[in-house]
Amino acid sequence: MTKTIHKGMTIEDILSSFPMKAQKLSQEITNAGLHCVGCSAATWETLEAGMMGHGKEEGEIDYLVGRLNDLLKEQEAEYDPETITVTKRAAEKFKQVLKEDGKEGHALRFGDRLAGCSGFEYILDFSNKASDEDMVFSSNGIEIHVDKASVGRLVGSVIDYVDGLQGAGFKISNPNAKSSCGCGTSHGY
């Protein structure tokens, strides 16, 4: 049986139980009005207590729990453990950024590096040409260049684009991540 999110879970439990989805989940929690999700701030509080403490009503709490569980299902449908996936929404945004920056024809460089409170952070950049040290993936019309040394940690990842009240950006869901910081920006393997 797949684990689901409920209102009695702490924010820390939610993010640590689903590290590959922590960025999307933390974004959704923030969009719901819990701006204290970041790095150890009130992560010990249950989702229900946090929402009620911010003046939210039972219906809003139930809606958020439903949204979070929908995100878990959505990610399962997009996940392919053999490749790196760029969602349709992220591919469209990346193509738009390429055009705006005059870099049409470039690929997406995807990697990770040591940083953050949980060990690693993701890198997304432009790549003019794959090197001999790269493995090349393709998803939704986007060529993705990944250093061969990082592939084992990154394969299976889903790159999405979210646009919410508290910000927009590319979000990574990685099945290889075993832990995530409270804000969902760094992770450990």
Report what the structure shows:
By secondary structure, the chain is of the alpha/beta class. The chain has two domains: 68 residues, no CATH class; 104 residues, Hypothetical Protein Aq_1857, Chain: A (Sandwich), CATH 2.60.300. The protein is built from six helices and nine strands; from the N terminus they run ααααβαββββαββββ. The strands form three sheets. It has a four-stranded mixed beta sheet. β8 and β9 form a beta hairpin. α2 packs antiparallel against α4. It is elongated. The two termini are 24 Å apart. The model has no long low-confidence stretch (mean pLDDT 83).
- Name the CATH superfamily classification of the largest domain: HesB-like domain
**Would you give the CATH topology of the largest domain?**
Hypothetical Protein Aq_1857, Chain: A
Record field, number of beta strands: 9
Query: Which strand-content bin applies to the residues?
Result: 25-35%
User: Structural class of the secondary structure composition?
Assistant: alpha/beta
Measured as a percent range, the helix fraction is: 25-40%
CATH-level-2 architecture of the largest domain:
Sandwich
Largest sheet: 4 strands, mixed
Name the average pLDDT: 83
Distance from N terminus to C terminus (CA atoms, Å) equals: 24 Å
Query: Quick one: overall form?
Result: elongated
Assign the CATH class of the largest domain.
Mainly Beta
Q: What is the number of helices?
A: 6
Q: What pattern of helices and strands is seen along the backbone?
A: HHHHEHEEEEHEEEE
The radius of gyration over CA amounts to: 17 Å
Q: Strand sequence of the main sheet, in spatial order?
A: 3-2-5-4
